[in-house]
Write a structure and sequence with these properties.
The protein has one domain (5-232): NAD(P)-binding Rossmann-like Domain (Rossmann fold, 3-Layer(aba) Sandwich). Helices cover 43% and strands 17% of the residues. It has helices spanning 15-25, 41-49, 64-78, 102-130, 151-171, 190-196, 208-219, and strands at residues 5-9, 29-34, 54-58, 81-86, 133-140, 176-183, 229-232. Helix 1 packs parallel to helix 2 (41-49), helix 3 (64-78) packs parallel to helix 4 (102-130) and helix 4 (102-130) runs parallel beside helix 5 (151-171). The longest helix has 29 residues, at 102-130. The radius of gyration is 17 Å and the shape is globular.
């Protein structure tokens, strides 16, 4: 029997790994997209633990043709995509707005908005035809407020949220569940222990597996009660409104 397919664009060692494990454990095959295979190794291993087939597909999210090609390869190799998760984090660089370059601004827009649109555009026609499907976008609090210190990140996430809302308003009536996930937190990934040093406290960080569980629960929502905006944070997080 053919398994449903989950495509994750940005399948790294943190949330990408946790999402791969969660969906593989629930009967999905995984199409994992990253620039290099090394970036997907943790997610591939996690999918295997979850008894799912996982395949690596290379793409540069800043190049829409590359994203479209990867999605086409997933569909031809594994089958039609049931859920697409765009899990890309670009432009987290500190600078003042006047120090932004045109090149950096174009790059963040390509990574956060054009790449996300290329991915969604590649699966939406098939989902509309089937009157079913899910598209989830991993995002951040930066999508809700500008920043004097991280303007590139905020600009990219604002655009991603606008894209998510626009797609949801246009295609929910076709049975497509589109959701924007505001991750108001830092994730407890391996680099964090090194970054925080003696101040490292996992209680103050979000567990990627817990975040992935929330993605799964959102995926399982009935059509009569869909979430299109999902906020997630650990219980210790100071809200950043």
């Amino acid at each position: 029997m053919t398994k449903p397919v989950c495509a994750i664009i940005g399948a790294g060692e943190g949330l990408g790994r946790a999402l791969a494990l969660k969906f593989a454990s629930n009967g999905f095959d995984l199409g994992l997209v990253s620039r290099t295979r090394d970036g997907c190794n943790a997610a591939i291993e996690a999918a295997a633990k979850g008894s799912g087939q996982a395949r690596f597909f290379s793409a540069d999210v800043a190049q829409p043709d590359s994203v479209e090609s990867a999605i086409a390869d997933i569909r031809s190799t594994l089958g039609e995509i049931t859920i697409l998760i765009y899990n890309v984090r670009g432009g987290f660089v500190s600078c003042e707005p006047l120090d932004m370059t045109y090149e950096a601004l174009e790059q963040i827009y390509r990574e956060e908005v054009i790449g996300a649109f290329a991915a969604a555009k590649s699966v939406l026609p098939q989902m509309i035809e089937q009157n079913a499907g899910s598209i989830f976008f991993s995002s951040a609090t930066a999508a809700f407020r500008g920043s004097a210190d991280f303007p590139l990140y905020a600009i990219g996430k604002f655009g991603l949220r606008a894209l998510s809302q626009s797609l949801a308003k246009a295609y929910a009536r076709h049975g497509i569940h589109i959701a924007h996930f505001r991750l108001d937190c830092n994730l407890d990934v391996p680099v964090m222990e090194k970054l925080y040093g003696a101040e490292y406290d996992p209680e103050k960080l979000a567990d990627p597996d817990g975040i992935a569980e929330s993605y799964w629960l959102t995926f399982k929502q009935p059509k009569s009660a869909w979430s299109n905006e999902v906020e997630l944070r650990p219980h210790t997080e100071r809200w950043t409104y």
